[in-house]
Every structure is written in structure tokens, then in C-alpha cells.
């Protein structure tokens, strides 16, 4: 059995990108295993999905920490280190990280974003792309740095914007690409470690 890189996926909701990573990790040739799925919200649907797939699912609820985001992240960091996690993949983790967690996992934390960065960082990416009259959209996997959605780009997938597209239609097509791009980019990344 060859050694597989232990990856934790951080989610806040249903975790469809997490599901794509878990599916990819089931391939014996995949160089990573999803060793943990962690959410800041105990009610996140993705926790149930992860547990059903045989992956440890853990909630580190942000509520008891109030406004002390770093204390919350220290609890997350401790959970990651206890499990020997080597790489962190953010997948719909809807919380801006403090310098503590970003620095603790520098060079080993990836995120997927639903735009062709550096265009449209932050939220409402599809609506903003449509309003601007863009002809294509897409998704980006990047390393996490202190600036929101500013880290080095590891991979991108492009999606044409079609006449009559709505936010929802475009989002669905981009998400299909995310589910292919993230596992492939993560695999390439861990092979290079």
C-alpha cells in the first residue's frame, strides 16, 4: 500500500465539492485520502454525506467562540493536527480565515472559487460576471493566502456563458467543472509535495 497524503476538507454546507473529492479518493491510484471532513456548522448536510461515505465527520461549532475567530481556528487546527492531516482543502467553507490558520497551513491549504480568478473574488461571482457581459466564466483552485481569493493559482476550468444564462444556470455548469477540476488539481498538488 503506497502512502496517501491525508487531506481534511472544510465545509459549511452540503459539500458537493467535498463529495467529488471523497469519490476521487476511492480510486486506488489517487494519491490522497480524505481523512476528515470538518464543518464550522454542526447542521451542515455534508457531515452526514461524509459519515455515510465512511469518512470521519467533525463539527467544530463556531457559535461558542462568539467573535473570537482565532480561538475557533485554534480548535480546528488542533483537530487537524491530532489526526495527522497534511493538506487542507476548503470546499464551500464560508468563513474568512484569520492569519492564524492561514499561516499555520501556508502552502498546504487549497480553496476552490467559482470564477476565473483574479476576476470576481468574493461572493456573487456569477451574477457579477453576467452583469459585466462576460463571455466565459469558470472556476479556480488556488493556494490560500492572507488576501481573500488572492493566492497562487493551481488550476482553472473555463465555462462559456450562453445567451439567456441566469445565475443559477451558470452556477450549475460551473459546479460540474469544479467537481472535475478540484480532485485533479489536488492530486497533482499532493504528488508535487
From TrEMBL:
Gene3D superfamilies: Formyl transferase, N-terminal domain
SUPFAM superfamilies, alphabetized: Formyltransferase (SSF53328)
Enzyme Commission designation: 2.1.2.2
Pfam families: Formyl_trans_N
Domain Formyl transferase N-terminal span(s) in chain numbering: 6-185
Binding positions for N(1)-(5-phospho-beta-D-ribosyl)glycinamide per the UniProt entry: 15-17
Residue numbers annotated as active site: 113
Reactions that this protein is recorded to catalyse: N(1)-(5-phospho-beta-D-ribosyl)glycinamide + (6R)-10-formyltetrahydrofolate = N(2)-formyl-N(1)-(5-phospho-beta-D-ribosyl)glycinamide + (6S)-5,6,7,8-tetrahydrofolate + H(+)
Record pathway: Purine metabolism; IMP biosynthesis via de novo pathway; N(2)-formyl-N(1)-(5-phospho-D-ribosyl)glycinamide from N(1)-(5-phospho-D-ribosyl)glycinamide (10-formyl THF route): step 1/1
Family designation: Belongs to the GART family.
Protein name: Phosphoribosylglycinamide formyltransferase
Taxonomic lineage: Bacteria, Pseudomonadati, Pseudomonadota, Alphaproteobacteria, Caulobacterales
Amino acid at each position: 500500500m503506497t502512502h496517501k497524503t491525508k487531506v481534511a476538507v472544510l465545509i459549511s454546507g452540503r459539500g458537493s465539492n467535498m463529495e467529488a473529492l471523497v469519490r476521487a479518493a476511492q480510486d486506488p491510484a489517487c494519491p490522497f485520502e480524505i481523512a476528515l471532513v470538518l464543518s464550522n456548522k454542526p447542521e451542515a448536510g455534508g457531515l452526514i454525506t461524509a459519515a455515510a461515505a465512511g469518512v470521519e465527520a467533525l463539527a467544530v461549532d463556531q457559535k461558542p467562540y462568539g467573535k473570537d475567530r482565532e480561538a475557533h481556528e485554534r480548535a480546528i487546527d488542533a483537530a487537524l493536527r491530532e489526526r495527522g492531516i497534511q493538506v487542507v482543502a476548503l470546499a464551500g467553507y464560508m468563513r474568512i480565515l484569520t492569519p492564524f490558520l492561514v499561516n499555520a497551513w501556508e502552502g498546504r491549504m487549497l480553496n476552490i472559487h467559482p470564477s476565473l480568478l483574479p476576476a470576481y473574488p468574493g461572493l456573487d461571482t456569477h451574477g457579477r460576471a453576467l452583469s459585466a457581459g462576460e463571455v466565459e466564466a469558470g472556476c479556480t483552485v488556488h493556494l490560500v493566502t492572507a488576501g481573500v481569493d488572492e493566492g497562487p493559482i493551481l488550476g482553472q476550468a473555463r465555462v462559456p456563458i450562453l445567451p439567456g444564462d441566469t445565475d443559477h444556470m451558470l452556477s450549475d455548469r460551473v459546479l460540474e467543472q469544479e467537481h472535475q477540476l478540484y480532485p485533479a488539481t489536488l492530486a497533482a498538488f499532493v504528488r508535487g509535495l
